[in-house]
Design goal:
Rossmann fold, alpha/beta, about 300 residues, 6 helices, five-stranded mixed beta sheet, nine-stranded mixed beta sheet
Length: about 300
């Protein structure tokens, strides 16, 4: 029976192998200042409740939030950026960064410790079957592809196109990755009916979203059913399930309890806590970015 560790953990991003690819320069007063290769950007960050350490921030661009708490806003740029974005590296994964209308830059840098952790769970495997739900632009799928076949699912055709472009850029386009534009919940339910199994599953669901055919996703309403279906795709030989949740007023202990209910019949351990990024430089502070819960069978 899987045991729940109640003490929360911190999965800390302290800088990428190539420090120039990504770094958190400073944070505070509800904002964060980050470096993405040769450019830097200022974005809203409500959890940065302290004051900045640096007196003046000068960035390539800043995202100005709208008045709506749930989203909206616009970019203001101090310099011209490449129309097609610019290339960055994480270990053996190469990809394109570019500001999006949703304040992101086509990837989530705080996920780097998660990619490393998943690879560690699959250590020694070359024919693993893994599933990436809400896979976005594919960095997690490319990281997993070292260990075998990956099924990448996202409702956005544009995101999947970018994911395939990142695979080509990483010279991984010949790896066995299925790129699917589909509704994550519907796809997972079909996989259960097909009797499929996976060695590992990662899911990074949004607070709210729509599938390719207008399906509505609301996290609090639909996450329990999706996790239950994911549990049916795992067995005693599976290695992991990793769940991240952003921008929701929810405890990591709550989503850990959800995993305990769904995966309690399997061996292993359920852990939970925060993803966080440490500021560059001496005495850098930890900036929490998301909560997670994970099951591992090791």
């Amino acid at each position: 029976m899987a045991s729940l560790v109640q003490q929360p953990l911190v999965m800390e991003c302290t800088g990428w192998p190539d420090a120039e690819s990504y770094r958190l320069i400073d944070s505070g007063a509800g904002r964060k200042w980050e470096g993405f290769g040769p450019y830097s950007f200022i974005r809203p960050e409500p959890q940065a409740m302290w004051q900045p350490r640096r007196p003046a921030w000068q960035a390539s661009g800043e995202f100005i939030p709208g008045s709506d708490e749930d989203g909206g806003g616009r970019w203001q740029f101090a310099e011209r950026l490449p129309d097609e974005g610019w290339e960055l590296d994480w270990n053996d994964v190469r990809f394109t960064a570019h500001p999006t209308p949703f304040r992101h830059l086509q990837f989530f840098p705080d996920m780097a410790p998660v990619w490393e952790w998943m690879r560690a769970q699959l250590d020694g495997m070359t024919e693993a079957e893994t599933l990436n739900l809400f896979g976005y632009t594919g960095l997690g799928s490319l990281a997993l592809s070292r260990h075998g076949r990956v099924t990448h699912v996202d409702a956005s055709k544009k995101s999947v196109v970018q994911a395939r472009a990142n695979a080509a850029l990483s010279e991984m386009d010949e790896r066995p990755i299925r790129w699917l534009v589909d509704d994550a919940a519907k796809f997972t339910a079909r996989e259960v009916r097909r009797g499929r199994r996976y060695d590992g599953i990662i899911l990074d669901p949004p607070k709210f979203g729509r599938g390719p055919e207008g399906e509505v996703w609301r996290l609090e309403e639909h996450l329990p059913g999706l996790v239950t279906d994911c549990a049916r795709l795992l067995d005693h030989d599976s290695r992991f399930l990793f769940l991240t949740v952003y921008a929701v007023r929810m405890s990591s202990l709550a989503i850990a309890g959800l995993l305990e209910e769904a995966l309690g019949h399997l061996p292993g351990t359920i852990e939970h806590g925060d993803l966080a990024v440490r500021e560059a430089g001496e005495g850098g502070r930890l900036l929490p970015t998301a909560i997670f819960a994970r099951w591992r069978n090791l």
